[in-house]
Amino acid sequence: MKEKNILKLCMKPNIFEAGCDEAGRGCLAGPVFAAAVVLPHDFDCKELNDSKQLTEKQRIELRHIIESNAVCYSIALCTPEEIDSLNILWASVSAMHKALLKLTVQPSHIIVDGNRFRPFNEIEHTCVIKGDSKFQSIAAASILAKTYRDEYMQRLDKQFPQYEWVNNKGYPTKKHREAIRLYGITEHHRKSFNLIEQQFEIDFLDK
Question: Which residue, among 142, 136, 143, 141, has the nearest Cα to 6 in the 3D structure?
Fold first, then answer.
């Protein structure tokens, strides 16, 4: 008999419910990505889990399963400029709204990882702390947001290899902060963040 996932499929059965999550909130560079996923009522994947608990290989394999089986899904982002303007929390929420807007099926309920959200199109929503380890649809959204963002940062790395984004994906590793000290910042860095441990005035790289 197939082993069931310990994560619940949804909060409200027999309706189209969208799970939402983001990736990249704690990064120094790059956009914040968000995904919205509506899973079918009979979906169950025992391997599905919070993306942070999975290896890169597992995330990629699960992404194919999610994309092949979801009723619909979408991915969206907010740029570093939007993050600097809105702050990272509301930029993350804005990215989720963009993703929800792109869904081909309108959900009747939205479940969101975390504890902050803003209403979307008068659709009922519920915030779930650590929701990516409780509901399959949120876990699926976390995997899509993470894998799409990682691919984006890997592409950027080809233009800016000195920051090692292919490895750190824009997160504040020691090597990333040291590269900022040595080379300054790019248009992909978030100027409102503490980019080095003792903030200095740093110039943009020549484009």
Answer: 136
Q: Tally Cβ neighbours within 10 Å of residue 76.
A: 22
The alpha carbons of the chain give a radius of gyration, in whole angstroms, of 18
152-175: pLDDT as tens digits: 999 999 999 999 999 999 999 999
Q: Give domain 17-157's CATH superfamily.
A: Ribonuclease H-like superfamily/Ribonuclease H (3.30.420.10)
Alpha-carbon gap, residue 72 to 114, rounded angstroms: 22
Give the domain ranges of the chain: 17-157
Cα distance between residue 41 and residue 94, in whole Å = 27
Largest CA distance in the chain: 61
Cβ-based neighbour number of residue 148 at 10 Å = 17
Which residues are paired to 22 by β-bridges?
A: 34
C-alpha torsion sign, points 104, 110, 111, 113: positive
Phi first, then psi: give them for residue 7, nearest 5 degrees.
Answer: -80, 140
pLDDT lower than 70: segments of the chain: 1-5, 196-207
